[in-house]
């Protein structure tokens, strides 16, 4: 019988024992699944391995982010509850703005490895080395203050393993006495309170000159994204069936147009820009398999979808946004658009053709 926990605050030794039980049972799933079944966090479960296995805490996450380009070709993964975004590429040189109350950063390579970072959520990280039936697996994993993964980096055959080893030796604590992090209990789900002045939200929405100004609108009105999309007329945000995701992906594949997928954790948004070959259903998941990009989506986490339109200097920008039952954003899909230019006419036509929810 597996050990289970009532709260996420239990000792590393108890967690490590529970992890060993999972392994002995050959329990299916990944660490994130095991952590959920044990009522703990993935970060806490990885931290429980410190001193027991080759899991070494990172001393300074920012310094490791700066070193990621030295690793060469790697696999980068960002996920949330419903969607996993995987990309094989090389990290470009980062731009890290560490000042201010909401520090941000980015790895900008449109068409390549493209990330937006919310650095206040990069709380703890570790380097892991373990033996698998396919050989030695090396990865860097980063977690927020609640122990949820914000981003992961895996070594590939093409990765510069000398640079990887140098990073581990320079930036991790490999001593057996390395301290485990103190993670916080997961917070209560965000409340999606309706707008107190929907007409004002609508007016400011229509005055946007750059899509990034949308975040300021949400802050000014203390709105969640989910609530904002429900507070404006249908020409700005209209609900559509969640199957619109499948429809739009397959339409973009048939039209051979470049699209963009945004998938985010609390601390990272990972972006793919390029063509797609269409949805490949497998074991209940929706999958995209491209040359360097893979996306896995669990349709059971898709509860709401909206077509949104925001004004931009080059014209309107249209997107499909999909949320889970808790109103948490799972994936956004755009047509590729160059800065200051109108979006592709083919993209506008196919997203406008999506049926209303009712």
Automatic annotation (TrEMBL):
Pfam families: HemS (PF05171). Residues 40-170, 223-354 form the Haemin-degrading HemS/ChuX domain. It comes from the Bacteria. InterPro entries: Heme_Transport_Util_sf, HemS/ChuX_dom. Residues 176-198 are annotated as: Disordered. Gene3D superfamilies: HemS/ChuS/ChuX like domains (3.40.1570.10). This is ChuX/HutX family heme-like substrate-binding protein. It comes from Marinospirillum alkalitolerans.
């Amino acid at each position: 019988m597996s050990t289970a926990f009532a709260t996420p605050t239990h000792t590393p030794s108890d967690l490590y024992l529970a992890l060993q039980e999972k392994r002995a049972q050959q329990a299916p799933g990944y660490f994130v699944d095991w952590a959920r079944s044990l009522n703990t966090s993935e970060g806490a479960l990885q931290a429980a391995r410190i001193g027991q296995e080759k899991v070494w805490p990172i001393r300074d996450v920012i310094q490791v982010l700066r070193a990621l380009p030295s690793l060469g070709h790697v696999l980068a993964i960002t996920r949330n509850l419903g969607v996993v975004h995987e990309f094989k590429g090389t990290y470009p040189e980062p731009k890290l703005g560490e000042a201010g109350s909401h520090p941000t950063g980015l790895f900008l390579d449109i068409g390549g490895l493209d990330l937006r970072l919310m650095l206040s959520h990069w709380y703890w990280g570790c380097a892991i080395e373990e033996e698998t039936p396919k050989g030695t697996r090396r990865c860097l994993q980063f977690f927020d203050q609640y122990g949820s993964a914000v981003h992961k980096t895996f070594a590939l055959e093409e990765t510069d393993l000398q640079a990887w080893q140098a990073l581990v030796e320079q930036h991790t604590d490999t001593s057996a006495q390395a301290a485990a992090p103190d993670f916080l209990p997961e917070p209560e789900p965000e409340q999606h309170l309706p707008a107190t002045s929907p007409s004002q939200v609508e007016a400011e929405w229509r005055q946007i000159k750059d899509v990034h100004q949308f975040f300021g609108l949400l802050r000014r009105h203390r709105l969640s994204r989910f609530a904002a999309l429900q507070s404006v007329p249908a020409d700005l945000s209209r609900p559509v069936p969640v199957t619109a995701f499948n429809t739009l992906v397959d339409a973009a594949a048939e039209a051979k147009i470049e699209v963009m997928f945004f998938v985010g954790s609390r601390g990272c948004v990972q972006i793919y820009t390029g063509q797609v070959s269409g949805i490949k259903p497998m074991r209940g998941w929706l999958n995209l398999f491209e040359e360097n990009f893979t996306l896995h989506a669990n349709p059971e986490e898709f509860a709401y979808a909206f077509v949104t339109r925001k004004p931009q200097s080059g014209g309107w920008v249209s997107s499909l946004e999909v949320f889970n039952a808790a109103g948490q954003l799972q994936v956004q899909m755009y047509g590729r658009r160059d800065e200051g230019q109108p979006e592709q006419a083919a993209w506008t036509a196919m997203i406008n053709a999506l049926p209303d929810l009712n």
